[in-house]
Amino acid sequence: MAEPTLHIGRKISKIRELKGMKQETLAHELGISQQAVSKIEQSADVDGEALEKIAKILGLSSEAIKAFTEEAVFNIISNTFHNTSSDNSTLIASSLNYQPTFNTVEKIVELYERLLQAEKEKNELLKGK
């Protein structure tokens, strides 16, 4: 059984969601059914050719998908609001200019829940050894 952090299908799903793309849209671009995309996203491993096609549609390389981690997302979010000014003017300006197309609090909670689930799965795997 693959470790949860290496689950390519979950990484595809997370990246797709972060990009605001629905399964139906990805399915249409790939020329397959939404159910087939769902099956791919549930798979721990994805065929190299399929991964290349998915990566191209998502605007990434297949290596970027393989290397994707939730920790990287948290780092990006925290660095977005990094304040280098002593009077907070930079923080206020950058906060006003940052208008995501998704609810950041919901995404953070969702990512945290997935990270927690991955840790639980990892602990179960370790208990089994």
TrEMBL record:
Pfam families: HTH_3. Keywords: DNA-binding. PROSITE patterns: HTH_CROC1. SUPFAM superfamilies: lambda repressor-like DNA-binding domains. GO terms for molecular function: DNA binding. It comes from the Bacteria. The keyword DNA-binding applies. This is XRE family transcriptional regulator. SMART domains: HTH_XRE. The keyword DNA-binding applies.
